[in-house]
Amino acid sequence: MRLVFASPLILAAGLDRHGYLLRSGAALGLGAVETGSHWTTSAQPLPLHPLAHAGTHVDAGRPLLAAGSGPAALHGLSLAKPPGLDWAEAGTAYWRAVRAWHRSADYVVLNPGRGGPAAAEFADLVAALSARCARLVRARRLALVVKLPATWIEPAGRAALACRFVAAGADGLLVSAEGAAAGVCRRLAELREAVGPAIGLVSVGGIDSVPEARARLRAGANLVQVHRAALRSGPCATDLLARIAALRSQG
Ligand SMILES: Cc1cc2nc3c(=O)[nH]c(=O)nc-3n(C[C@H](O)[C@H](O)[C@H](O)COP(=O)(O)O)c2cc1C
Hints:
By secondary structure, this protein is of the alpha/beta class.
């Protein structure tokens, strides 16, 4: 993904929608915070940048300075199509959101969401969006990550599917094991083998301990995401996050 993460730990989408932790997240050990998912249909033109609510300097561009010393957590901008919007309009909606909000982001995550399109249809959308993103005027290229739901990854054919998204322009794949944790490491290893070392593999779903995070990284993920364990752990959450963050990324 041509990005340098301070640690292999990412706060998964849906937990910090407005990026309150972008400034202080590095102190928790976070390599990145995924804001959103932000819906992509607002009245034209899209009004406030989602991060404006967090009081961050969204127009100042990267990098934001961390509250302490050291680099800030990177910003992944997670985008999903609202359930009500027809898929025929989805490509335009994702693009409007990227164009309006990309400046504070290091990478964008395209999430097909629940009840989304067929994988092949989504790959076509990613290809069109990738071509448009390449023309964005930025100091650094915007990396594109595609979230792959467990229902796309569980069946045989996952390797070909992953390669199809890479061919469409994905720099990284966010591989969800939500509700499908059994066999996740085997599937990750297979995907790593298929896409090669240059593609970022991010594992999410059921990571609730250091051994589980370590197993995902060893299987081939470069990065891991945590959501519910960070909520469930209560006062121990910062300790769990710090110990996962201390693990070494595989690439
Ligand atoms: C309350 C809640 C809200 C979520 N919202 C989003 C979202 O907006 N976009 C997204 O891509 N994933 C969302 N997720 C999924 C998480 O990012 C993550 O993929 C999922 O919870 C599995 O990780 P976990 O087992 O660590 O919780 C949400 C999850 C929860 C529990």
